[in-house]
Design brief:
Elements: E1 9-13, H1 16-19, E2 32-33, E3 36-37, H2 44-49, H3 51-67, H4 72-83, E4 88-92, H5 98-102, E5 107-109, E6 112-119, E7 125-127, E8 146-150, H6 160-169, E9 172-176, H7 188-194, E10 198-203, E11 215-218, H8 221-231
Parallel strand pairs: 1-4, 1-9, 4-5, 9-10, 10-11
Antiparallel strand pairs: 2-3, 6-7, 6-8
Helix pairs in contact: 4-8
The chain binds adenosine-5-diphosphoribose.
Protein backbone atom coordinates (compact mmCIF):
# COMPACT_ATOMS: atom_id res chain seq x y z
CA UNK A 1 0.00 0.00 0.00
CA UNK A 2 1.69 3.26 -1.12
CA UNK A 3 0.01 5.39 1.61
CA UNK A 4 -2.17 4.88 4.66
CA UNK A 5 -5.29 6.51 6.14
CA UNK A 6 -3.08 8.49 8.54
CA UNK A 7 -1.20 10.20 5.68
CA UNK A 8 -2.02 13.73 4.56
CA UNK A 9 -2.72 13.19 0.87
CA UNK A 10 -2.29 15.68 -1.98
CA UNK A 11 -3.87 14.42 -5.22
CA UNK A 12 -3.16 15.93 -8.65
CA UNK A 13 -5.39 14.82 -11.52
CA UNK A 14 -5.21 15.40 -15.26
CA UNK A 15 -7.30 14.69 -18.33
CA UNK A 16 -6.74 10.93 -17.97
CA UNK A 17 -9.13 10.62 -15.04
CA UNK A 18 -12.00 11.86 -17.21
CA UNK A 19 -10.98 9.77 -20.25
CA UNK A 20 -13.18 6.84 -19.23
CA UNK A 21 -16.11 9.26 -18.88
CA UNK A 22 -15.73 9.90 -22.61
CA UNK A 23 -13.88 13.25 -22.44
CA UNK A 24 -10.90 13.30 -24.78
CA UNK A 25 -7.43 13.85 -23.34
CA UNK A 26 -5.28 16.56 -24.95
CA UNK A 27 -2.23 14.73 -26.20
CA UNK A 28 -4.12 11.43 -26.71
CA UNK A 29 -6.39 12.93 -29.37
CA UNK A 30 -3.39 14.33 -31.17
CA UNK A 31 -4.18 17.70 -29.61
CA UNK A 32 -6.54 18.47 -32.44
CA UNK A 33 -10.04 19.93 -32.43
CA UNK A 34 -11.76 20.30 -35.82
CA UNK A 35 -8.35 20.49 -37.42
CA UNK A 36 -7.09 23.18 -35.02
CA UNK A 37 -4.18 22.62 -32.69
CA UNK A 38 -5.24 23.06 -29.05
CA UNK A 39 -2.63 25.81 -28.82
CA UNK A 40 -4.58 27.67 -31.50
CA UNK A 41 -7.80 27.77 -29.48
CA UNK A 42 -6.52 27.83 -25.90
CA UNK A 43 -4.21 30.84 -25.81
CA UNK A 44 -4.67 34.60 -25.25
CA UNK A 45 -3.42 35.07 -28.84
CA UNK A 46 -6.23 32.85 -30.17
CA UNK A 47 -8.76 34.82 -28.13
CA UNK A 48 -7.58 38.12 -29.58
CA UNK A 49 -7.46 36.75 -33.13
CA UNK A 50 -10.79 34.89 -33.18
CA UNK A 51 -12.98 34.93 -30.02
CA UNK A 52 -15.84 33.24 -31.90
CA UNK A 53 -13.63 30.22 -32.64
CA UNK A 54 -12.50 30.10 -29.02
CA UNK A 55 -16.09 30.25 -27.73
CA UNK A 56 -17.12 27.50 -30.17
CA UNK A 57 -14.37 25.29 -28.75
CA UNK A 58 -15.43 25.88 -25.15
CA UNK A 59 -19.14 25.57 -26.07
CA UNK A 60 -18.37 22.11 -27.46
CA UNK A 61 -16.45 21.23 -24.31
CA UNK A 62 -19.35 22.46 -22.14
CA UNK A 63 -21.77 20.24 -24.07
CA UNK A 64 -19.43 17.23 -23.83
CA UNK A 65 -18.88 17.69 -20.08
CA UNK A 66 -22.60 18.12 -19.41
CA UNK A 67 -23.28 14.83 -21.21
CA UNK A 68 -20.52 12.96 -19.32
CA UNK A 69 -20.85 11.16 -15.99
CA UNK A 70 -18.24 10.70 -13.25
CA UNK A 71 -16.52 7.32 -13.46
CA UNK A 72 -15.24 4.88 -10.84
CA UNK A 73 -11.95 6.83 -10.63
CA UNK A 74 -13.68 10.09 -9.66
CA UNK A 75 -15.86 8.17 -7.17
CA UNK A 76 -12.83 6.48 -5.60
CA UNK A 77 -11.15 9.85 -4.98
CA UNK A 78 -14.34 11.13 -3.30
CA UNK A 79 -14.29 7.96 -1.17
CA UNK A 80 -10.61 8.57 -0.26
CA UNK A 81 -11.57 12.09 0.89
CA UNK A 82 -14.24 10.60 3.17
CA UNK A 83 -11.68 8.14 4.57
CA UNK A 84 -9.15 10.90 5.28
CA UNK A 85 -11.25 13.74 6.75
CA UNK A 86 -9.28 16.99 6.90
CA UNK A 87 -6.19 15.31 5.42
CA UNK A 88 -7.10 15.24 1.75
CA UNK A 89 -6.60 17.92 -0.92
CA UNK A 90 -7.50 17.50 -4.58
CA UNK A 91 -5.87 19.74 -7.16
CA UNK A 92 -7.08 19.14 -10.69
CA UNK A 93 -5.85 20.42 -14.03
CA UNK A 94 -9.23 19.52 -15.44
CA UNK A 95 -11.85 22.15 -16.11
CA UNK A 96 -14.80 19.71 -16.09
CA UNK A 97 -16.92 19.28 -12.94
CA UNK A 98 -16.86 15.49 -12.71
CA UNK A 99 -14.92 15.47 -9.41
CA UNK A 100 -17.59 17.64 -7.76
CA UNK A 101 -20.37 15.53 -9.23
CA UNK A 102 -18.65 12.43 -7.81
CA UNK A 103 -18.73 13.99 -4.32
CA UNK A 104 -15.28 15.59 -3.90
CA UNK A 105 -15.36 18.72 -1.71
CA UNK A 106 -11.82 19.89 -0.95
CA UNK A 107 -10.92 20.59 -4.58
CA UNK A 108 -9.08 23.29 -6.50
CA UNK A 109 -9.24 23.76 -10.30
CA UNK A 110 -5.78 25.14 -11.08
CA UNK A 111 -6.57 25.60 -14.80
CA UNK A 112 -9.99 27.17 -14.27
CA UNK A 113 -13.55 25.88 -14.62
CA UNK A 114 -15.52 25.09 -17.74
CA UNK A 115 -18.79 26.24 -16.15
CA UNK A 116 -17.58 29.69 -15.20
CA UNK A 117 -16.96 32.75 -17.38
CA UNK A 118 -15.50 36.14 -16.57
CA UNK A 119 -15.52 39.67 -17.94
CA UNK A 120 -12.21 40.61 -19.55
CA UNK A 121 -12.35 43.93 -17.65
CA UNK A 122 -14.09 43.26 -14.28
CA UNK A 123 -12.39 39.83 -14.06
CA UNK A 124 -14.78 38.33 -11.48
CA UNK A 125 -15.78 34.76 -12.46
CA UNK A 126 -19.48 33.82 -12.47
CA UNK A 127 -21.39 30.56 -13.12
CA UNK A 128 -22.15 30.07 -16.82
CA UNK A 129 -23.15 26.86 -18.62
CA UNK A 130 -24.40 28.58 -21.80
CA UNK A 131 -23.02 27.89 -25.25
CA UNK A 132 -22.03 30.68 -27.65
CA UNK A 133 -21.76 29.87 -31.34
CA UNK A 134 -22.42 33.15 -33.12
CA UNK A 135 -23.35 35.91 -30.64
CA UNK A 136 -20.58 36.50 -28.12
CA UNK A 137 -21.39 37.30 -24.49
CA UNK A 138 -20.68 40.72 -23.01
CA UNK A 139 -20.53 41.91 -19.40
CA UNK A 140 -23.85 43.11 -17.97
CA UNK A 141 -21.99 45.70 -15.87
CA UNK A 142 -19.45 47.24 -18.25
CA UNK A 143 -20.21 45.79 -21.70
CA UNK A 144 -16.73 44.33 -22.23
CA UNK A 145 -16.30 40.86 -23.80
CA UNK A 146 -16.83 37.85 -21.52
CA UNK A 147 -14.31 35.00 -21.84
CA UNK A 148 -14.16 31.41 -20.53
CA UNK A 149 -12.73 31.20 -16.98
CA UNK A 150 -9.91 28.97 -18.22
CA UNK A 151 -6.17 29.26 -17.70
CA UNK A 152 -4.79 29.30 -21.22
CA UNK A 153 -1.26 28.44 -22.35
CA UNK A 154 0.97 31.28 -21.25
CA UNK A 155 -1.29 32.28 -18.33
CA UNK A 156 -0.60 31.64 -14.65
CA UNK A 157 -2.50 28.82 -12.87
CA UNK A 158 -4.99 29.86 -10.19
CA UNK A 159 -3.99 30.08 -6.49
CA UNK A 160 -0.47 28.67 -6.88
CA UNK A 161 0.38 29.79 -3.31
CA UNK A 162 -2.45 27.65 -1.93
CA UNK A 163 -1.25 24.68 -4.01
CA UNK A 164 2.33 24.97 -2.75
CA UNK A 165 1.14 25.42 0.85
CA UNK A 166 -1.05 22.30 0.64
CA UNK A 167 1.79 20.30 -0.91
CA UNK A 168 4.15 21.42 1.85
CA UNK A 169 1.72 19.98 4.45
CA UNK A 170 1.26 16.66 2.62
CA UNK A 171 2.97 13.36 3.45
CA UNK A 172 2.03 11.68 0.16
CA UNK A 173 1.44 12.90 -3.41
CA UNK A 174 -0.80 10.86 -5.72
CA UNK A 175 -0.76 11.97 -9.37
CA UNK A 176 -3.40 10.52 -11.71
CA UNK A 177 -3.78 10.61 -15.50
CA UNK A 178 -1.54 13.46 -16.58
CA UNK A 179 1.23 13.30 -19.17
CA UNK A 180 3.62 15.42 -17.09
CA UNK A 181 4.17 17.82 -19.96
CA UNK A 182 2.55 21.05 -18.71
CA UNK A 183 4.26 23.09 -16.00
CA UNK A 184 4.00 24.09 -13.20
CA UNK A 185 1.70 21.09 -12.54
CA UNK A 186 4.32 18.65 -13.86
CA UNK A 187 6.86 20.11 -11.40
CA UNK A 188 4.87 19.36 -8.23
CA UNK A 189 6.45 15.91 -8.03
CA UNK A 190 9.93 17.48 -7.97
CA UNK A 191 8.92 19.80 -5.11
CA UNK A 192 7.50 16.79 -3.27
CA UNK A 193 10.80 14.95 -3.75
CA UNK A 194 12.77 17.88 -2.34
CA UNK A 195 10.57 17.74 0.76
CA UNK A 196 10.78 13.98 1.19
CA UNK A 197 7.09 13.47 0.39
CA UNK A 198 6.25 10.01 -0.99
CA UNK A 199 5.16 10.19 -4.65
CA UNK A 200 2.89 7.80 -6.56
CA UNK A 201 1.69 7.97 -10.18
CA UNK A 202 -1.43 6.14 -11.44
CA UNK A 203 -2.31 5.76 -15.12
CA UNK A 204 -2.14 3.34 -18.06
CA UNK A 205 1.29 4.55 -19.21
CA UNK A 206 4.31 6.14 -17.56
CA UNK A 207 4.24 9.98 -17.71
CA UNK A 208 7.11 12.05 -19.14
CA UNK A 209 8.37 12.75 -15.61
CA UNK A 210 8.08 9.08 -14.54
CA UNK A 211 11.62 8.93 -13.17
CA UNK A 212 10.67 11.41 -10.45
CA UNK A 213 8.08 9.11 -8.84
CA UNK A 214 8.74 6.61 -6.05
CA UNK A 215 6.04 4.30 -7.37
CA UNK A 216 4.12 3.89 -10.63
CA UNK A 217 0.77 2.07 -10.56
CA UNK A 218 0.08 1.12 -14.18
CA UNK A 219 -3.58 0.82 -15.17
CA UNK A 220 -6.65 2.87 -15.97
CA UNK A 221 -7.94 5.19 -13.21
CA UNK A 222 -11.18 3.19 -12.91
CA UNK A 223 -9.18 0.13 -11.82
CA UNK A 224 -6.24 1.56 -9.88
CA UNK A 225 -8.11 4.12 -7.76
CA UNK A 226 -10.94 1.88 -6.48
CA UNK A 227 -8.28 -0.66 -5.44
CA UNK A 228 -6.39 2.07 -3.56
CA UNK A 229 -9.55 3.32 -1.84
CA UNK A 230 -10.60 -0.22 -0.87
CA UNK A 231 -7.18 -1.05 0.59
CA UNK A 232 -7.41 1.94 2.96
CA UNK A 233 -10.57 0.64 4.66
N1 LIG B 1 -6.82 6.54 -16.57
C1 LIG B 1 -5.77 7.30 -16.18
N2 LIG B 1 -4.99 7.98 -17.04
C2 LIG B 1 -5.27 7.91 -18.35
C3 LIG B 1 -6.36 7.15 -18.84
C4 LIG B 1 -7.14 6.43 -17.89
N3 LIG B 1 -8.16 5.68 -18.27
N4 LIG B 1 -6.38 7.30 -20.20
C5 LIG B 1 -5.35 8.10 -20.52
N5 LIG B 1 -4.68 8.47 -19.42
C6 LIG B 1 -3.50 9.32 -19.31
C7 LIG B 1 -2.55 9.26 -20.49
O1 LIG B 1 -1.66 8.17 -20.34
C8 LIG B 1 -1.84 10.62 -20.40
O2 LIG B 1 -0.68 10.51 -19.61
O3 LIG B 1 -3.92 10.66 -19.26
C9 LIG B 1 -2.84 11.50 -19.66
C10 LIG B 1 -3.41 12.63 -20.48
O4 LIG B 1 -2.39 13.54 -20.79
P1 LIG B 1 -2.70 14.94 -21.49
O5 LIG B 1 -3.64 14.73 -22.62
O6 LIG B 1 -1.40 15.57 -21.77
O7 LIG B 1 -3.53 15.75 -20.38
P2 LIG B 1 -3.00 16.57 -19.14
O8 LIG B 1 -1.69 16.04 -18.66
O9 LIG B 1 -4.11 16.64 -18.15
O10 LIG B 1 -2.77 18.01 -19.77
C11 LIG B 1 -2.33 19.03 -18.94
O11 LIG B 1 -2.49 20.63 -20.69
O12 LIG B 1 -3.75 21.24 -22.52
C12 LIG B 1 -3.39 21.58 -21.24
O13 LIG B 1 -4.52 22.86 -19.64
C13 LIG B 1 -4.58 21.65 -20.33
O14 LIG B 1 -4.88 20.78 -18.10
C14 LIG B 1 -4.35 20.49 -19.39
C15 LIG B 1 -2.86 20.36 -19.37
Amino acid sequence: MPFSATDRLFVLTGAGISAESGLATFRGSGGLWNGHRVEDVATPEAWHADPTLVWRFYSMRRRDALAAQPNAGHLALAELERQMPGRFYLCTQNVDDLHERAGSHHIHHMHGSLFQSRCTRCNAPFPDAATYETTLPTCKVCGHPVRPHIVWFGEIPLALEEIYAELARATALLVVGTSGSVYPAAGLVHIANQRGIRTIYAGPEAPLNAEAFDEILLGPATEVLPTLAASLK
